[in-house]
Amino acid sequence: MLDLLPEFFLTEPKRLLSLGRAMARAGWFILFVGAIGHAATSATAAVHSIAKQTGLANTLADIYPSLPTWWVPESIVGCLPALVLLALGFWLASLGKQLQRLYRG
Hints:
Order of helices and strands: HHHH
Largest sheet: none
Distance between the termini: 30 Å
């Protein structure tokens, strides 16, 4: 199975380009949702501090208990896999473009 993967992507560079773009979009989406989540927790903490309430919502799971928020990065350490996904996507898209130029010329 693993022997077929390089042949699958190298014979048709558009596949590699599409995979790279999809991975880059997924990385951007995860980082964007993480930024929105950080803004939501910061806004909730600000409202709680103004109202002088004791129960602070520190995580998205505290704010939205019925939604699955396990995949949203809430810290720098949580953003690292999304950054790796983004960088790998850019690299694969660049490699796909280079292979397209190589096969045309």
